[in-house]
Amino acid sequence: MILKPPLTDKDVKELKAGDRVLITGKVYAARDAAHKRMEGNPPFDVKGQILYYASPTPTPPGKIIGSIGPTTASRMDAFTPELLKKGLKGMIGKGSRSKEVIEAIKKYKAVYFVVPGGVAALLSKHVKKSRIIAYPELGPEALLELDVVDFPAIAAIDSEGNNILELGKKKFRHGI
User: Fold this and answer.
1) Chain centroid to CA 174: how far?
2) N or C: which end of the chain has fewer CB within 10 A?
3) What is the pLDDT along the chain (176 residues), one digit of tens a residue?
4) CA dihedral defined by 145, 128, 115, 80, rounded to 10 degrees?
5) CB 123 within 8 A of CB 68
């Protein structure tokens, strides 16, 4: 499935946990330090947007961006419900989310995507443009606007709260 942000409620509703997607368009990248600064007043319109929990390594000569892999999403859980309330529709990271975040995903009709760790160099090839839009003093943890093409991700938690991370654990435990 191809996704082009900004996402609509219809886009999100069609996604089911386990769906593989390719994202083309603007995605925003921020980690812990930027989330603390954004609290209450994000410096961009989050409505319909996707936030990637990542920060790049230094950009090699001749490249658009350095390696840019996901960070552990749960570190942003304290900030996520408020961003979802403001209209954020997607998040990309790795690992599980708190009960509060899953409830907010359901309430505000959003989706959490995962990308595997260890593929940061490959993911950077899908970034066609990168610019700092806020907090340049944070260095690699500044808030970035990325133009991505065919950025691969998997819907891990859909807008109904279905969660492939939990379903996988159950299958493993019960040999299903």
Assistant:
1) 30
2) C
3) 999 999 999 999 999 999 999 999 999 999 999 999 998 899 999 999 999 999 999 999 999 999 999 999 999 999 999 999 999 999 999 999 999 999 999 999 999 999 987 889 999 999 999 999 999 999 989 999 999 999 999 999 999 999 998 765 555 455 55
4) 10
5) yes
Give phi and psi for 37, each to the nearest 5.
-75, -30
In this structure, are strands 111-114 and 143-157 parallel, antiparallel, or unpaired? antiparallel
Q: How far apart (Å, rounded) are the C-alpha atoms in residues 33 and 61?
A: 26
Compute CA 88 distance to the chain's CA centroid, rounded to the nearest angstrom.
10
The topology (CATH level 3) of 2-174 is fumarase (3.20.130)
Q: What is the DSSP string of 34-88?
A: HHHHHTT--SS--TT-EEE-B-PPPPPTT-SS----B-BGGGGTTTHHHHHHTT-
Domain boundaries, the chain: 2-174
